[in-house]
Amino acid sequence: MYSKDINKDLELRPWKTSEGRTNNPPMGRLVFFSFISFSFLTTFSDVMIPQKQVMALPLSTDSRWIVDENGQRVKLACVNWVSHLEVMVAEGLSKQPLDGIAKRILSMGFNCVRLTWPVFLVTNDTLGSLTVRQSLQSHGLLESISGIQANNPSIIDLSLLDVYQAVVSSLGNNNVMVILDNHISKPGWCCSNSDGNGFFGDQYFDPDLWITGLTRMASMFKGVPNVVGMSLRNELRGPKQNVNDWYRYMQKGAEAVHSSNPDVIVILSGLNYDKDLSFLRNRPVHLTFSGKIVFEVHWYGFTDGEAWKNGNSNQVCGRVVDNMMRVSGFLLDQGWPLFVSEFGVDQRGTNVNDNRYLGCFLSVAAELDLDWALWTLVGSYYLRQGVLGMNEYYGVLNWNWREVRNSTFLQLISALQSPFRAELPSGIEGVLGLIIRL
Fold it and tell me: Is residue 431 within 8 Å of 438, Cβ to Cβ?
């Protein structure tokens, strides 16, 4: 399905920052397939299906596709919204009103949010019952308290669990689907091999407590129509990871979620920071239910060091994608949906490695018509790794959450936010065939 014949390159226009500056980094050329540019696809409305904002929920699966209750394809075009750090409050609520953020997500073309959460939020009663004010005070975040009082006064004295539910409700009111992502157990930044959150049996990763957390979250959002999926665990990793425990516990987690909330799709991650699902090739999961299982994978440029910057972009793209298809992409051919639940780039446009990786990613995501979730919505954090108000340069919004950080990037991914016509041959080759015939 993936073509390596990508010798003609597409020049990306200079990236404009939200402050109005134009950056002209020595970024070379972005690698795309040998076809008319993505900007053409975004305007070729006869080829693309406008993404419906109201689907016939709940969702299920049909071979490799996610579909609605009527059997129509629903393409997940999501953005990650962080809510798993020490404060355990969705980021940005000190900067903008909750409803305004939800509306901005929709206006940028996303139909879905992957909303992160830590196990301790629902299994540690002391933490879960803290109010927003108390949580922020415990970390000395007085400026954030003032910001939430100004922008979201109704939530400042609600419990952390109530606020998490309020975020989901606001997204639902704006026709945005939600995937609940168990990102970590102990609240904090993710991820490393030694943070105690990596694999079953680690210091903070008790399998029984994890099952309890999944069950409580699934039950809490049962009957909430815009909660369409639950991701069981983000980026399994570390020295304890092994295939046998993966099957043992991930199958238990899937059964627990489905038993508590049969409406949601259940999303299973792999090993090695969610890059490796190769063990599934000859040993499928065995569950009591069907039509609800999706697998997820992560793909970043930095995963390959500085290969994109230092190597020939076409060759690096071919090598990386060959490996991706070998360790995870084969699931599409086996008839399973594959959700790229994290990808992203430094949106300042100055990272050559990221820029070249992005060209490859966009091409492959288009050809395979993948479901995906961008990392990240977040423009800045209350507190990350000890730094107050840290700027998130992978964030689609800027530091004050008021403007889009890079409008050129949004234009590039807009071509991927709608599915290609089901009746066309799959992927970009089918689109090109139609263009040629026209």
Answer: no
Task: State how far Cα 150 lies from the chain centre.
Answer: 29
Is residue 185 a contact partner of residue 124, using CB atoms and an 8 Å limit?
no
Q: How far is CA 48 from CA 45, 244, 260, in A?
A: 5, 42, 37
- Give 82-98 pLDDT, tens digit per residue: 999 999 999 999 999 99
Q: Is 223 left (phi over 0), alpha (psi -120 to 50) or beta?
A: left
* pLDDT tens, residue by residue, 311-321: 999 999 999 99
Contact (CB, 8 A) for 380 and 392: yes
Q: Any bridge partners for residue 10, and if so which?
A: 30
**CB under 8 Å to 414, separation ≥6 — which residues?**
42, 109
Length of the chain: 438
d(CA 377, CA 82) in angstroms, rounded, equals 8
Burial class (CB in 10 A: 0-12, 13-18, 19+), 53: exposed
Q: What is the pTM of this model?
A: 0.87
- For residue 220, give the amino acid letter: M
CA angle centred on 270, ends 264 and 272, rounded to 5°: 145
CA distance 17 to 398: 9
